[in-house]
């Protein structure tokens, strides 16, 4: 790590620690520190460039490290980091989505450096994306997608660096998704739209194609169902949102939309059946038929 970058990260950490000790309110302390840091560092840069993205990532990572240093809630810190990043950069539209994605990736990297929970910071980042998007008028589905994409991209990089791929990465991603969905439910977000955004974000983040993509879609849809159930949300609505997200993401990546929809629906029904027969039936009814112009057919053994 270059000396200048290390000094920047150390300064952000010190600022975060000082702000928390001064106020005791982690979210607001982080929002103020991050927004102030970014306003001073990348003010007037216009569109988010590579250097600005690195600054966002470093700021978010340093924030988590600083909060961890004082034993604070890294989930709350992640939420504050995303809100602060949006306020500090004052970006809208596509630039705001880049900001959210870079910040979400940064908090995940920060958590990995202090042995913190990747799911916890992803949950906070998604909550921050929802709150921040509403504040500046950005589409909430796209904001949720951007947060999920950034978090899952960083998760994938961390796992690949440690030599873990395949099923280990899918399992980890599923856990991150499950907790992220809980976060959407806890802030009163629309779980259908949230699930759609998360599925799109996962596909963007993992950049998988072929059989790997369909396996990821299936496991992600299952995680959406389980996460929704744990916050007593509308599981059927979330499952349908997951299928819509799978279709939208498949179109973006030019993979088979029918296969993607089938994988999402099958994963959702399987997870729902593990909750109860009644929930399984509700989800089956919600995800079969035609969704977003695609005829959805369940795979064995759920036909």
> How many domains is the backbone divided into?
2
Total count of helical runs of at least 4 residues = 13
Uncertain residue segments: none
Q: What is the number of strand segments?
A: 2
Structural class of the secondary structure composition? mainly alpha
Largest sheet: 2 strands, antiparallel
Fraction in beta strands: under 5%
List the secondary-structure elements in sequence, H or E.
HHHHHHHHHHHHHEE
CA-atom Rg in angstroms: 19 Å
Biggest sheet: strands side by side, in what order?
1-2
Average pLDDT confidence is 88
**Which term fits the overall shape?**
elongated
- How far the N terminus sits from the C terminus, by CA atoms, comes to 53 Å
How much helicity do the residues have?
A: over 70%
Which key features would you list for this structure?
two-stranded antiparallel ribbon, 303 residues, mainly alpha, single chain, elongated
Write a brief caption for the model.
The protein has helices at 3-23, 26-42, 50-69, 74-89, 93-113, 118-136, 140-161, 167-186, 191-206, 210-230, 235-253, 257-275, 277-287, and strands spanning 289-291, 294-296. It has 303 residues and is mainly α. It has two domains: 1-117, no CATH class; 165-303, no CATH class.
Provide structural commentary:
This protein has helices spanning about 5-25, 25-40, 50-70, 75-90, 95-115, 120-135, 140-160, 165-185, 190-205, 210-230, 235-255, 255-275, 275-285, and strands at about 290, 295. With about 300 residues, the chain is mainly α. It folds into 2 domains: about 1-115, no CATH class; about 165-303, no CATH class. Strands 1-2 form a two-stranded antiparallel ribbon. The radius of gyration is 19 Å and the shape is elongated. It starts with a helix and ends in a 7-residue tail after the last strand.
């Amino acid at each position: 790590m270059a000396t200048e970058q290390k000094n920047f990260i150390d300064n952000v950490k010190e600022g975060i620690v000082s702000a928390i000790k001064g106020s005791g309110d982690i979210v607001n302390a982080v929002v103020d520190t991050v927004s102030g840091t970014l306003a001073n560092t990348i003010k007037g840069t216009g569109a988010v460039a590579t250097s600005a993205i690195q600054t966002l990532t470093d700021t978010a990572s340093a924030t988590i490290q600083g909060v961890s240093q004082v034993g604070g809630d890294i989930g709350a810190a992640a939420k504050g980091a995303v809100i602060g990043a949006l306020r500090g950069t004052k970006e809208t539209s596509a630039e705001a989505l880049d900001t959210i994605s870079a910040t979400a990736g940064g908090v995940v990297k920060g958590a990995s450096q202090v042995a913190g929970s990747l799911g916890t910071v992803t949950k906070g980042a998604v909550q921050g994306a929802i709150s921040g998007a509403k504040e500046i008028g950005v589409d909430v589905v796209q904001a949720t997608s951007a947060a999920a994409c950034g978090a899952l991209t960083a998760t994938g990089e961390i796992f690949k660096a440690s030599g873990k791929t395949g099923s280990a990465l899918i399992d980890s991603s599923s856990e991150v998704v499950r907790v992220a969905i809980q976060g959407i439910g806890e802030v009163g977000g629309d779980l259908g739209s949230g699930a759609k955004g998360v599925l799109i974000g996962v596909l963007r983040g993992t950049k998988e194609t072929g059989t790997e993509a369909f396996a990821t879609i299936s496991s992600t849809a299952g995680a959406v169902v389980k996460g929704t159930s744990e916050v007593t949300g509308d599981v059927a609505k979330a499952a349908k949102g997951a299928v819509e997200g799978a279709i939208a993401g498949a179109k973006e990546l030019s993979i088979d939309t029918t296969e993607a929809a089938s994988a999402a629906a099958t994963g959702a029904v399987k997870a729902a059946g593990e909750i109860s027969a009644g929930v399984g039936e509700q989800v089956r009814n919600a995800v079969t038929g035609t969704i977003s112009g695609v005829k959805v057919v369940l795979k064995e053994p759920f036909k």
